[in-house]
Design a protein that fits this description.
Length: about 500
């Protein structure tokens, strides 16, 4: 039977079995000499079917029996479904996100829990993973596009559950050895978004690097090692040819002094660039707009940190032996929690419309961080139940995930009181803005060596830190904030007193 006859017989088969034709998927043909003509007939079948029947028609499999006589072949129609993978609810009332990076492209094979993309909400960066095993057929967004919760992110082609339908016909063609069609699947190197960014900035293809991490994951050290290898392979410049010295030195003729050339700065014309607010900038503009509704008042003071400096010096090596770097911040956070126990109104939130005041049980103290994504304020949960060492360990974790852009919504939400360490950049005083629904925030200045008087009237070099408080004047008065600040100050200036109140 010729290939034309084969195509016509297949045409009758598909037309008479429309339920099979709706989702038929035909991929390979054992006798390749029939492939071209047969496919032309199958394509003509698609035009004769209803759109609902022909939309998913593909050639799947035709098996030719190895006999020189009239042979039968089987056609198997395998159900293949295209499913939309929607952006699920991330939580915390998030309605939209910005697509930061795609980890897949059209045609990639993915399995469940493989990384699909990374998105940035107004609260945190989240990595979206696949729910299906299949092939990516469509990406709905480009990088930096805004995606709405519930809208599709990608289309995935997966094997359906409709089973298969088979039919037999006879044909007469010369036998050939069965050949396998190669399957081309793209390979994507495993790497974190931070590592991918380093590779992109250095124009490095991750597929060219042998990862040394778990399951072949490419690490930052692998990229640096790859770059160093490229540098060492560069050819060195050829040595300069020797220059013969003259028999006798020749005095050069005097040259007239030329005045330096004046280079005028060229001012080029340009246009203003307008960009939509997105990511952390959009989140900050929204939260600060809410903060402007709060009547702020400020309170400023200085703290003598001399005794605390010595205490930290004594405990620093012990903490480092446990794998944690000890700074002044764990003591400052714990002192704030001890003071909040005496002044719980500063650890509260006010609902003006509802006319209620909520005293928060846990001291979820936020610490402002300057990250590549902007200003973020993750918080340490239930500080009242933590030791100074446990606070130091949690601060270390938050710092590491913050630099990697991996702070979760759990880290960034639920704060009840905040501190901003502007001193790490170099500031002394500030006017911090309250983060709703909190009612107070403190800004810490840098530590400075300044002359101060002791109780005997003697001058000594003191380590001074300035603090700037902002409080919600709808709820808090100056006297309450001053008393709270004085108690907090006493814990820091006399850290031994903290031992009496630790639980």
């Amino acid at each position: 039977m010729t290939s034309s006859c084969l195509g016509r017989r297949l045409s009758r088969l598909v037309i008479t079995q429309p339920s099979v034709a709706r989702n038929a998927s035909i991929i390979s043909l054992s006798d390749r000499r029939c492939l071209s003509s047969t496919c032309r007939h199958v394509f003509s079948i698609q035009h004769r079917l209803l759109p609902a029947q022909a939309s998913n028609l593909r050639v799947h499999q035709i098996t030719v029996a190895p006999s020189s006589q009239a042979r039968s072949f089987n056609t198997t129609a395998v159900m293949a479904d295209i499913v939309q993978f929607n952006l699920s609810d991330i939580g915390e009332g998030i309605k939209e996100v910005t697509v930061k990076e795609w980890f897949v492209k059209v045609g990639d094979q993915v399995a469940q829990f493989d990384n699909i993309c990374e998105v940035q909400s107004d609260k945190a960066s989240v990595t979206i993973t696949s729910k299906f095993d299949g092939i990516i057929t469509k990406l709905y967004y480009e990088v930096d596009d805004i995606a709405q919760t519930g809208d599709p992110l990608v289309d995935v082609e997966i094997a359906g559950d409709g089973g298969s339908a088979s039919s037999s016909v006879n044909l007469d063609t010369p036998s050939d050895d069965e050949q396998d069609m190669p399957v081309n699947r793209s390979k994507r190197a495993l790497a974190t978004p931070a590592v991918r960014r380093i590779a992109m900035e250095n124009n490095v293809n991750l597929a060219d690097i042998n990862g040394t991490g778990k399951e072949g994951r490419v690490l930052k050290e692998d990229i640096l090692r790859f770059l160093e290898g490229g540098k060492t392979g560069a050819s060195a410049p050829p040595p300069a040819a020797p220059v013969a010295c003259p028999a006798a030195p020749v005095k050069p003729a005097a040259q007239p002094q030329i005045p330096p050339r004046i280079v005028r700065q060229v001012i080029t014309e340009g246009k203003d660039r307008v960009e939509p607010l997105k990511g952390m900038v959009k989140a900050m503009s929204k939260s600060m707009s809410e903060a402007l509704k709060i009547p702020h008042f400020g309170y400023y003071d200085e703290i003598d940190m001399t005794n605390l400096v010595q205490l930290r010096k004594d405990l620093k090596n012990v903490c480092e032996s446990r794998g944690v770097k000890l700074s002044y911040m764990p003591f400052i956070v714990k002192a704030a929690s001890l003071a909040l126990l005496q002044y719980p109104i500063i650890n509260s939130s006010i609902d003006v419309d509802g006319g209620t005041l909520t005293y928060k049980h846990n001291h979820n103290i936020g610490v402002a961080m300057d990250t590549a994504q902007g200003l973020l304020v993750p918080n340490i949960k239930a500080v009242q139940n933590l030791s100074v060492f446990e606070i130091a360990a949690e601060l270390t974790r938050l710092h590491q995930v913050g630099l990697a852009g991996k702070l979760s919504s759990q880290d960034l939400t639920g704060g009840t009181f905040s501190l901003s360490n502007i001193g790490s950049i170099g500031g002394t005083y500030a006017s911090p803005v309250i983060l709703p629904p909190e009612v107070a925030i403190g800004a810490l200045g840098k530590l400075r060596k300044l002359p101060r008087y002791n109780s005997k009237g003697e001058v000594y070099p003191a380590t001074i830190m300035n603090v700037s408080w902002s409080a919600d004047h709808r709820l808090l008065d100056g006297a309450t904030v001053a008393r709270f600040s004085n108690l907090w100050k006493d814990y820091l200036e006399n850290p031994g007193n903290m031992v009496l109140d630790l639980k």
